[in-house]
Each structure stands twice: as structure tokens, then as C-alpha cells.
Specification:
- By secondary structure, the chain is mainly beta.
- It is about 5% helix and about 35% strand.
- The strands form eight sheets. Strands 9, 10, 12, 14, 15, 16 and 18 form a seven-stranded mixed β-sheet that branches. Strands 24-21-28-33-30-31 form a six-stranded mixed β-sheet.
- A hairpin with a 6-residue loop joins β1 and β2.
- The protein is globular, with a radius of gyration of 22 Å.
- Keywords: Glycoprotein, Signal.
Amino acid sequence: MEKSALLLMLHVFCGVLALFSVSQVTADDPYKYFTWTVTYGTLSPLGVPQQVILINGQFPGPRLDVVTNDNIILNLINKLDEPFLLTWNGIKQRKNSWQDGVLGTNCPIPPNSNFTYKFQAKDQIGTFTYFPSILLHKASGGFGGLNVYERPLIPIPFPTPDGDFTLLAGDWFKTDRKTLQQSLDSGKSLPFPDGILINGQAQNTFNGDQGKTYMFRISNVGLSTSLNFRIQGHSLKLVEVEGSHTVQDTYDSLDVHVGQSVAVLVTLNQPPKDYYIVASTRFTKRVLSASAVLHYTNSQTRVSGPLPAGPTYQVHWSMKQARTFRWNLTASAARPNPQGSYHYGKITPAKTIVLANSAPLINGKQRYAVNRVSYINADTPLKLADYFNIPGIFSLNSIQSLPSDGPAYLSTSVIPASLHDFIEVVFQNNEKTLQSWHLDGYDFWVVGYGSGQWTQAKRSTYNLVDALTRHTAQVYPNSWTSILISLDNQGMWNFRSAIWDRQYLGQQLYLRVWNAAHNLANEYDIPANALLCGKAVGRKP
């Protein structure tokens, strides 16, 4: 984030915390109340003492367990010496981008202040996460699991597991995050990570009874590195990906890219002893691994020997695996109607957007760009500028919807789109590194992966029957990935690289989904407790 923008955002007008507007909730749905305090602490995740970000004294933060349609009222108290925001990775914030927790929608919470998030897990079920969205806070922690469970009368397409484990795996740096941030600001790239953590530690143990079946909810909460996950001697039955129930195929190991989440069922059907759980890096010359222990409660034998080997540098293997992830068409998700009742493949897209990432030097410094535009944060959140009609904050002509030749430049890039349109988005990756793309406010159908340059002829390879819906999609080196999106959620939505140094240095934009008719059926009003900053200071919500 630019220093000038951050300084302006520090001058935040804190609105009075108010009760949740009746227009924004359903009275029959339960409320759950939380108070979280964000502080610094000193821990040694990789054996070296370093400053981390704690939530209620925990690293990672508390696991947030809710049920479909719960209303979450979460008072976040910032005790850091910097502004802070949390974003809810994969929660769609239906008609409510006011609660998304990114700089395009929200003013950051100043030090020694608070903000109460008020949102609903509307029509969602599955495995998600939350994490800090500004500066490089994510490199210090502040992340956690967010699990949305089914309502009692909504069936799930598998027997209720005997237990439920959340595994937050990710790369980790011993270097202080402020030093990492200064390095990025000076035009350098992130160094190679120092290790991998599982639930914030180098060692964990998960206990289970022989013969029982457990759900493992696995999320890649790291900054930059894809991971492969496996359990020694056990198969992984994939049942859910980021809110979608899947065809229940079985795997020996699974690739999970930055920002992604999967849920698998594991049956403890092996001889009673301890087994390795492994997360290791993918597409890296040097492979880093973290291990945990799956402990049978009747085990008398500790783990020993080498870690079970995973795949090495095999892009084709990973792309082939990704194509096997399919939608379970007959299963219900958060609603009782089957997932497959929406025939996405029979809809003609109203528009095609092609987003090409690049790594240009701008003013002699390393930046990252989309269609030649490297994003810079405005001093006023785009959503507030849009609501208050504040000119000069962003332009709807700031970025082209197709790649073009020419030098890269800095801008606050926003792509306009119409509410209820159905669009095709192609991610074109001409670099030698894997990309991971996330869209707030939505999930989307990942209909195609391919090598080389995308052309219209590639549509003949799309899966238009049972492609998976998810919120974060990988794009392999020198390859493309195509998605389809039903734009049914009005708001200002962050379209970003989930690889955090790329996001920080400009590989992001916003999708403005808009309908001129202003009514609560399309979008909720600005919350009464909205923080105001930049050019929005002094205006009335």
C-alpha cells in the first residue's frame, strides 16, 4: 500500500457502533457474537523468536465455526501499532461488500480502535479461512479457519464424520514481516521461504480411533507457495472444495495452492500405529516439508523413517489432477436443491474478459500487473467513493478487458460489469511461475485448464457439465485457466492474486458489479458503523 494512502486512512472517522440493520439480516436466522482482540506476541514457529500477530492470544487465530445462514456479529479490537483489517476468504457477503474487509471496500481499523463486522454466511457451506488483508500482516499470522456447517434438515452427501480437523498449512519466513515489506517496497521479490507450518507449528498430533472416519479441512494460508498434502498409508476421499460438494474420488495426495481449501475424509483402516501427515512445497527447486502425526488412540508405535514422498516438479500431473475435481450434481449444498440444478454450461456469456499477469519493472522497481496495469490503492476505499459519488478516486476506463502491447503503468484499476450478467474470464499466464487467482463475493465454475495461449477454439475443451465451483483458481506456468461467473451479487469486489507479494505489488483489480436501480433487493445500504477515511471523512453514512 502507498504510504500516502495509508497515512490518510489513519485519519478515520469512527461511526457509532450500531445494531445490525433489519434490512441486512433475516430475523429467523441465529446470531453469533464474538469479540476478538488483535495483539502482537513473540513465538518461535521455526525455532527462532519472532513477532507474530495473535487474535485473542492465539496463533493461528480462533477457529470460527458457524452454520449456514448464521448472522456473525464480530467486534474486532485492534491493539497493534498499525491499521488492520480482516477479510473472510470465500464468504460471499451477499449484497454486502461493505463487510468484505479489503482496502477497496473498507477503511482500515486504526490502532487502539475497533470495528464490528456484521455479515451472514448466507446460503453457504464448507471450508474457508480469514486473514489480514493489508500491508504484509499475513506474514505474521492473524489467519484462521472458518467452517460453515450444514443446517440440521439439509443432507450432506456422506455420513457424518466421527471428527473434524482443521489444518492450516503454509510457507513461513523467519524474517520479520516489516523487513519483508521494506524489501518489496524497495523493488525486490520475496526470498525463498524458510519452512512450512501446519497450524502455526512445526509439529502437531491429530488423534483418532481405529476404524473411524474423520474429516480433514485443509487450507493453504501461506504467502506464495503451492503445497502437496498426504497422509502416510491412507487414502484421501475428496468431498468438498471451497463450498462445493465434489464427486467423491480418492487420492493418494492433493495439491492445494495458495488461498485454496479442500475437505477430505480419511478412514483409519490401517494397523494401529502412528503415521506421518505431510505438507510439502510444489514447483520449487528445493522441497520444504512440514510433518504432523496421525495418532491411532490404540497405537503403541511412534512414527519413524523417512517422510512419504510426494510429487516433485510435475506440472502436467497437477493439471491432470485438477481436471478430475468435479461437481457432485445430485448433492445439495447449503440449500436442499441439487447443485446440478443450475445448468451453467447452457448459458451464453455476455462478455469475455482476458486477464494476463506480468512482472514488469516500473520506475526501476519490481511490480506485478494485470493487462499492463499495476494496481495502487487509493486514499479512499472505492466502495465509499462510489457510494458518495466522490470524483477522482477511480475510473471505469482504467484497465482494458483484453491484453494489449505497451509499457506497464500504475493505476487504480476497476472493470465495470452489470448485475445478472453471465461472463467468461480467462487467466493467461505467460510467466514461468504458477499463479493463484481469487475473486471476493463469488464462487465460479472452473471450466478449463490448458497449456500455451488461450484462443476461442479452446472452448471446445471446456467442461460444461460438472465443473467445480470455487473461489480461488490456479493457473499453471505458461498456461491458461478459464472460469464462468454468474454476476448475481452487486458490489465492489476484489479480483486479486492470492500470492501475496504479487497482490501487494499490484496484481489485483476490482470488479464493480452494478445496477442503476437502488434498492435493498440488489444491495444493502452502507452500515451505520462504517469507518470513513480519505475523502469520505465528514460525510454521513
